[in-house]
Amino acid sequence: MSDYRLAFKPAIGLYGQHDPSAVLFDGGTPVFGIEEERLTREKHATDTFPTNAIEACLEYRDLEFDDIETILLPYDPRLRSRIRSHYLTDALRAPSLTRKLSALENTIVTEAQSRLAPTKQIERRLAEIDTPVPPIELRSHHRCHAASAFHPSGFDEALVVTIDAKGEYDSTVVWRGDETGLTRVHTYDHPNSLGLFFAVITEYLGYRMFNGEGKVMGLAPYGEENPEIERTLRDLIDVGPDYDVTDVTKRWGTGHGVELLEEAFDRPRKESPEDFDQWEKDLAYTAQKLTEEIVLDIVQAYSGVIESGNVALAGGVALNCKLNKRVREETVVEDTFVQPVAHDAGLALGAGWIGQDPASVEPLSTVYFGPEYDREQIESRLQTNKIAYAEPDDLEQYVAERIANGALVGWFQGRMELGPRALGARSILADPRTAASRDRVNRFVKHREEWRPFAPSMLEEAAEEYLVDGQPAPFMIDAFDVRPEKQDDLEAVVHPADGSTRPQTVREDQHPRYYRLLSAFENITGVPVLLNTSFNDHGEPIVNTPTEAVKDFYGMGLDLLVLGDYVLEKPTQWIDSADRVDQPATDSAVTDTASSGDGTMGSRPDEHLVQ
């Protein structure tokens, strides 16, 4: 008999505000997982209960709540009382008497709910899905982050560091992971929050908290050492293993911190993230530098709690791949594992693993936990919407030829990824060899800032040839320097300012069709690498369904869409570069399987597509 457990991260009330998700476990193994944003189509799905994600988990195995042994929540509101005084002080800092009273009332009500009825709100929402509601177990937020990093790492022991904005009362926690599980070594209480500190910098530079931190990381290499900026920030915070950023982060949210920076720098916050000047680039550089310095000091200070040099990381700050690179390169570190779903959506994974013997958890080799659509489902949607399509005799060879000839390709294959990175299941692909390729994807496909770099997918066996310290990196969560002699081959996926990249390495057993595509591209060009970015337009979640992929195909500057075995092409291909890339003839390469009498490619407006 199967042992089903359902873990999910709500984003309502006492349980945080962003990135809800759900994961179904069978006998201790995650078998299905999805983020709510992929189903609601609202990025980060803020202030949302993951009803759709929960229902998708149940539907995957045709389950009802009667079949679920336990529901696991990666948040324990009862622990909030440890920093009760912070919430009361925060309320008293409200600017007017009316707002003070309102904030105090909200704080008192929240405290009562946390202590007396921590799961009541969740039980009500679950009862709207099905009854009876299974027993609910609460797991602490940062312990779930820690389990998500250590249990699937493959390490017998490790120093585990979890870093985010806040979970209950924690902001950063150092753990010892071994065969007995996780032992808390040191805690940095909220509001002493590295995640919130970086969020303040993010908002000050014109981006949004919990959404733009990765962009600030990408902007940082364009900056330079700026003694004045660094001196000002160091006056506001203390670095080292006993870091303290509380002066910047003492109020929840970023408003107080941004105002403090405006006063300290005598410079208003940036209203929109466009046309960064050198000072703003230098600020991003300095914030990244200080964040790295603090985390490296923590790793060095606590490396003695284990005999090995293994380090595991999770929490939203662990999405910072430049930081992860610095940790990997640290002299006291022998090996690292970073949970690829490091942010709050990955809490559901940790909640499911906490109660298990770490040695019983298989090392994580995939995050393809989401939905997939078979040949018949894809074909049915295309025919219903009267969209012409074709089926190449050799799909991978045909697509590789098109990419080598300049085509920008939407690639929709197999089970969707869990987490923020597209890893060859819901990807946009392009030729990695020229900067023009990068610029076209930024301008015509992703509709985003042209300075932002892209990441590559490469055959795992090519990692040492192309990367300094090259090694398997299947999750696009770590950065590497590209070997100088190879940078000209990878202009589209090397950061222009520092020569680094954030690769995904691919083995055949991880994604056979994607591996074959990379191999075919290597046979044509000699380069076993593709530009790979997530299949979504700017500000949208990654596509989930074939219909969403088709909508984005016609709304973006893509030339080709590959849905499983089928290929969609636009009637005319225009390449915005000095050299015109002619569209190769398709008659000999593909067999047309669509009825062309009822419609042509591009003839159906997006809003009329049948789901």
From TrEMBL:
Compositionally biased spans, kind Polar residues: 585-598
Keyword match Transferase: yes
UniProt-listed InterPro entries: ATPase_NBD (IPR043129), Carbam_trans_C (IPR031730), Carbam_trans_C_sf (IPR038152), Carbtransf_dom (IPR003696), NodU/CmcH_Carbamoyltrnsfr (IPR051338)
Domain Carbamoyltransferase C-terminal: 400-570
One Pfam family it belongs to: Carbam_trans_N
Domain Carbamoyltransferase: 17-351
Region (Disordered): 578-611
Gene Ontology molecular function: transferase activity
Keywords: Transferase
PANTHER family the UniProt entry points to: NODULATION PROTEIN U
Family recorded in the similarity comment: Belongs to the NodU/CmcH family.
Identification of the protein by name: Carbamoyltransferase
Organism (species): Natronorubrum aibiense
